[in-house]
């Protein structure tokens, strides 16, 4: 998609600049499961004098293929991607690294088609038994279950509402909270309401229900999923731009049937009970929820992130959410620990850590537009997790230079995992960070694109020796793990290890 050498806007976690960069053609579109593993975070440079770095959690931008709804009941056990307008959706799952008028923005699809059951999906990391997924508040009648949120219907323009005949549905999520409003206007809304509603139902089936409950929920002819898919397929099979309003009404009836079933399960206490028995959320579900948040809070204002200062040295890049999940898992992040993202942009990685791992999650960003959208995301994230009935780790987003922010400097002293995307930081910025990391607690892990283990074996008194890379050699990331290269590269996980310096001194004195 991006060939040759071109001048464009390249954006880095909160900092955007005009740069000239050697780029290469993107690889072929990802297979469905790989496209699902895409999500963003944005990282800025901590000061005007220093460069920003590639950030953790967006997709390598390659055009995604819209899914075609299937009428085969055997295929009903998968989430298929919403059909979105690429030009309007720069999602955490698919954010290209460069933008100009000739660039093709990728589709923001999440495709979970190869996952028959979320519950059967296992990770290689040990289960966090301390993780409590159910939000007590979300399953109570406290405050009537109403709160501020961005409904999908809020994103429709007036012409779309009129053309849809004002067919509105309200969707029940697996909690005691309010319903979400959707306008049924296939192919015109910023969010594909039909596909998103069906995907919500599929997640309920795969995560919130027992096998026995899910069997009835997804029965081939009379189940909730089947009724929704039949109504959806009747609409999507229409080739003309105009859809018979009766078909939209049929879909609404299928949603009403789903809502009634959900209400019954909720009254029986089945949803709360089942959620209490879980300690882990599938990555694809995490991605789906974060996509919902991003689509509502950031996508309508994504052009604000393209504002940049000509001649500045900040650049922007993304790490995929699947990659973020992997590296945080490698560090053993748990729900009773603290995560810090230095250069958090609109907060994507901070939110992912809080949702996927349930930890206390901090971020710091300096660019005003990114900070404003981060606040919007954090508010919608809180509302959306309540809809899903989920308890997450506390989220704290700071604004300003992370080298000077007092709250960040303080929390770093108790952090268990720190992420800093320092790929293109200047030498002085990396030195300043290295000194800051000397105050980390022993055992804290540092994830970075450039190594902070810069102590010298010749000088065993060098305090930098207490920052040691976990592996003897750099860890590789693949071409699908970041947005700024199709070749892959290296990253590092270092550990604060006071004992290492003592061992070096003893060895040299001996």
Which key phrases capture this entry?
alpha/beta; 13 strands; elongated; 32% helix; 510 residues; 14 helices
Structure description:
It is built from 14 helices and 13 strands. Residues 1-90, 94-118 and 309-314 have low confidence and may be disordered. Strands 6, 7, 8, 9, 10, 11, 12 and 13 form an eight-stranded mixed sheet that branches. The protein has 510 residues and is α/β, with parallel strands linked by helices.
Q: Can you lay out the helices and strands and say which pair or pack?
A:
Elements: E1 5-12, E2 15-22, H1 32-36, E3 98-99, H2 158-163, E4 168-171, E5 180-183, H3 193-208, H4 211-217, H5 224-236, H6 245-268, H7 270-276, H8 283-297, H9 321-330, E6 338-342, H10 348-356, E7 360-365, H11 368-387, E8 395-399, H12 406-412, E9 417-420, H13 427-436, E10 445-448, E11 467-469, E12 475-477, E13 489-496, H14 498-509
Parallel strand pairs: 6-7, 6-9, 7-8, 9-10
Antiparallel strand pairs: 1-2, 1-3, 4-5, 10-13, 11-13, 12-13
| C-alpha geometry | elongated
Structural class, from helix and strand content?
alpha/beta
Distance between the termini: 59 Å
Query: Largest sheet, described in full?
Result: 8 strands, mixed
Please estimate the helix content: 25-40%
- The H-and-E topology, N to C, reads as EEHEHEEHHHHHHHEHEHEHEHEEEEH
Low-confidence stretches: 1-90, 94-118, 309-314
Radius of gyration: 23 Å
Helical run tally: 14
Strand content: 5-15%
- The oligomeric state of the chains shown is single chain
